[in-house]
From TrEMBL:
Protein species of origin: Pragia fontium
Keywords for this protein: Activator, DNA damage, DNA repair, DNA-binding, Metal-binding, Methyltransferase, Transcription, Transcription regulation, Transferase, Zinc
Residue ranges annotated for the HTH araC/xylS-type domain, each copy included: 78-176
Annotated Pfam families: Ada_Zn_binding, HhH-GPD, HTH_18
Protein name: DNA-3-methyladenine glycosylase II
Chemical reaction(s) catalysed: Hydrolysis of alkylated DNA, releasing 3-methyladenine, 3-methylguanine, 7-methylguanine and 7-methyladenine
Phylogenetic placement of the source organism: Bacteria, Pseudomonadati, Pseudomonadota, Gammaproteobacteria, Enterobacterales
Amino acid sequence: MYQAILNHEQKYNGKFLTCVKSTGIYCLPSCPARKPLLKNIRFLATEQEAIAEGFRICKRCRPDLFYRGENQDENLFNEMLVRIRAHPAAFQNIGTLAKSCGVSSTKLNELVRVHAHISPAELLNRERIAAACLALVTTSQKILDIGLAVGFESEASFHRQFLSQTAMTPSAYRSLRDTSEFTLKLPADFTPDYAWRYHLRDKSSLSEYLDEHGFTKALWINHVPVIIHLKIDNATAYCYWQQPSTSDVNSQPVGVLIHQQVIRLLGLNTNVSAFQSSAKQNSQMARLLAQSSPLYIPMTATPFESLVWAIIGQQINLTFAAALRQALIKLAGPVVGDSSLHIHPSAINIAALEPQQLTDIRFSRAKAQYLITAAKAIVDGELDLDQLATGSAITAEKKLCAIKGIGPWTARYTMMRGLGFADCTPVGDSGLHTALQQFYQLDKRPTATEVEQLMKPFSPFRTQATTYLWESLRKKS
């Protein structure tokens, strides 16, 4: 037992507790704190015994959280997010943020990478811009005052970061309050081809299409259907929309919500430059990048649409999955106004279905039940996908996998394409396993465990790496 605590072995957590007589605290065997001499230790079997003997909780390893099934780092990350969102300007730099969390800068970097899949600086900027966006459309404050209030040191840095994350200036964003169109400034290396291919995997889709005029899709905005039209010309995206009816729901302006969905559809939140920079010190990443032009990772218009696609796609090929999706949209997706476009069904639409209605359109009994169960979890408030998208990746995967019928592949695909996490590996994906076999020139397809190992060199950009690997299969087909 003493050797186990000297080695900080996590496998003994829950089997016994280390109670230090000199300090009066009790710890998990894996506690990172400096270990006392054996003569100063009592080993007890349960937390109740330790408390009864008068020992107190260790503030470093938090055995109380362990025995409640909670994770200390997960709690710390979630508490940190609450503090940042309440006062984004309170943290001038990463050192200030680390100090407020009671951890080192190294620990903070690890914490944010694991839970948010970005760096602490990127997290701060993301939350500052989110606060600025809200202020721009809900107040009449001067733009500079808003930038300073959320924590930026100058007007130039505010404008630079705002443009990077929203593809428009703060003043243009403010105009989303009362407009029916907007333009986005695209990165110089952006091309829409991959986004169009992703959104049109179903060549006969009822909810979106691409023609000489651009991309058209039906979306839910403020709980009513809207048709958006999106055209890419050189380095600019032009978007306008038609709203057959108005919403009585008190929510953000229509333009703001459509802007969010267009950013998702085009994959403009992809950190391509950071991926490319990492390749300079990573030979495997460099070799992967050399196989394709830069890829911006498109997402589904809403997280729920991604979850539906993932459940439909479980253990079947893409052609059949597209056919099932089309049948589902025809069954449960309302037609928008006088158009021929259906809108992708909402969670409410699908939760109202009976399994028999889905098996009648070639869903398996199990898949029909999984889809309806997931939709009901969202309608009942048990699963909040929008909240998961801006929280911890660890929390998101646990919440998703707690729903019957959702395993690691379905959860991670949803996290990639629906929630926007940057460091996901959809283990179990047939295409990924095949692509890795070819990339590493392996004699046989890698197992799930081997896939996890083979993808490690691409962290913290495994979502982008996965996309490049999928694309490598298309080019060889």
